[in-house]
Design goal:
The strands form four sheets. Strands 1-2-3-14-4-15-21-17-19 form a nine-stranded mixed sheet, sandwiched between helices. A seven-stranded antiparallel sheet has the order 8-7-11-5-6-10-9. Helix 2 packs across helix 11, helix 3 packs parallel to helix 6 and helix 6 crosses helix 11. By secondary structure, it is an alpha+beta fold. It folds into two domains: about 300 residues, Aminopeptidase, CATH 3.40.630.10; about 140 residues, Aminopeptidase i, Domain 2 (Roll). It starts with a helix and ends with a helix.
């Protein structure tokens, strides 16, 4: 009885089998915009800068907490240049709750140490401390860019960005040649490249007409002083990040995939941002959060555990005479974060029946965490049902999955910190292959459906 099976059985379908040519074109157009964003936003600071630029172009204004909030107003607030919150004020007061999207804009990378510059055997290096969960061996023998800020003793901030433009130099961490790597190759993958060996080569030319020590270091420091007006002491108050110097490119003969650094989690961050920029007259207030520090536990003043989010929402609530706790208990949050996509090359780590796949749409994760759901929000059945209804009513292609087999490991997102505020929260986002690597892969259709899903949640009635 095939008709009865169709009615009663559940079988996810490939998004390519569910869309027409017009929607395929819409997905391609959306991904052109996303690839441009990803190319410009190599760090959390650059993501905030680009987010504000796009928001202003869409009619958003900076909001400091003043009265006079009206339905349809578009506002934003930066959190020290490292996180960003945006809102479109709804027709209903905040006492009805708000529709929230929360993504993060930091990605695994290499941070320069506080005193990074040194010379050894007439080669100059930067010492690094890796940020977030990385496989250290993936970061050697590949081109790197340098981005961030240096704050001088006088308080002046110097922006640094080098390696990303045509004609600019790049940097690299060396690796052993296989001819001499017998001992190294006997070690485990986690031990083969120690964290203290992630030292970036930045120069080799000694200063001329100088008989002192550290002549290569002096050459490098002279270049940085001429270009940015800084001295070595200024590294003490700097945030400089080394990221892969790899272009964002379409992948595959059919161009159906996107390869690039930082899909985790800027693919979801851009989906949220693009969705809220399109919102004009929502029933409930829509909020987009682009948070920092998720890769290290959402700590710090710009992370999702910070009270910066409460301050922003409380200012809006106060302008309407609403208690923030009443707003939160009636709100809905999509913790928009990536999940792993099933990789046929490594099938042993996934439960194939319960894992997201490329091209099957936005991936919903009822829970994340590790092993016994430790560190998970674990959304209620009612929240899952609500999301199913919203997506069905708006033609969003979606799938449900979990982060690998039960005892393989796992991971967390900002969902638990939103739920801690008494907000109904669920994880949903773009499935990724090679997550946390210098060059991740995502599906164009999955990116587009995540944008479409976020927009549907914002416009829920």
């Amino acid at each position: 009885m095939p008709d009865l099976r169709d009615e009663l059985f559940y079988k996810p379908k490939n998004a390519f089998d569910q869309i027409d040519e017009a929607e395929r074109k819409a997905a391609d157009d959306y991904c052109v915009r996303y690839m441009d964003f990803l190319s410009k936003a190599k760090t959390e600071r650059e993501a905030v800068t680009e987010g504000i630029r796009l928001a202003k172009a869409a009619g958003f204004r900076e909001y400091a907490g003043e009265d006079g909030i009206h339905p349809g107003d578009k506002i934003y607030r930066s959190v020290r240049g490292k996180a960003l919150m945006l809102a479109v004020i709804g027709k209903l007061p905040m006492s009805y709750g708000c529709q929230i999207g929360a993504a993060h804009i930091d990605s695994p990378r290499l941070d320069l140490k506080q005193s990074p510059l040194y010379e050894d055997s007439e080669v100059a290096y930067f010492k690094t401390h890796y940020y977030g969960g990385i496989k250290k061996y993936q970061w050697v023998a590949m081109p790197l860019e340098l981005h961030g800020v240096v704050v001088t003793r006088s308080g002046e901030t110097k922006e640094v960005s080098i390696g990303g433009q045509e004609g600019e130099p790049v940097f690299v961490i060396s690796d052993l040649l296989p001819h001499l790597a017998a001992s190294q190759m006997k070690k485990t993958m986690s031990e083969a490249i120690p964290g203290e060996n992630l030292n970036i080569i930045i120069g080799s030319e000694p200063a001329k007409d100088d008989d002192g020590s550290d002549r290569v270091k002096l050459t490098v420091m002279k270049i940085m002083n001429e270009k940015y007006g800084i001295t070595e002491e200024d590294f003490l108050s700097a945030e400089l990040e080394a990221v892969p110097a790899l272009p964002v490119r379409e992948v595959g003969f059919d161009r159906s995939l996107i390869g690039g650094y930082g899909h985790d989690d800027r693919s979801c961050a851009f989906a949220e941002l693009a969705a809220i920029l399109d919102i004009e007259a929502p029933e409930k207030t829509c909020v987009c959060i682009l948070a920092d520090k998720e890769e290290i536990g959402s700590e710090g003043v710009s992370g999702m555990q910070s009270h910066a989010f409460e301050c922003f929402i409380e200012d809006i609530c106060a302008a309407q005479g609403v208690e923030i706790r009443r707003c939160f208990e009636r709100s809905l949050c999509i913790s928009a974060d990536v999940t792993n996509a099933f990789d046929p090359t490594y099938p042993e780590v996934s439960d194939k029946r319960n894992n997201c796949k490329l091209n099957y749409g936005m991936g919903i994760a009822k829970f994340t965490g590790s092993r016994g759901k430790s560190g998970s929000n674990d959304a209620s059945a009612e929240v899952v049902g609500r999301i199913r209804r919203i997506f069905a009513e708006n033609g969003v292609v979606w799938q449900m999955g979990e982060l690998g087999k039960v005892d393989e490991g796992g991971g967390g997102t900002v969902a638990m910190y939103m739920a801690l505020r008494n907000i109904d929260t669920i994880d949903a986002g773009v499935p990724v292959i090679s997550m946390h690597s210098p060059y991740e892969l995502v599906s164009k259709l999955d990116c587009y459906m995540t944008y479409k899903g976020m927009k549907a949640v914002y416009m829920e009635k």
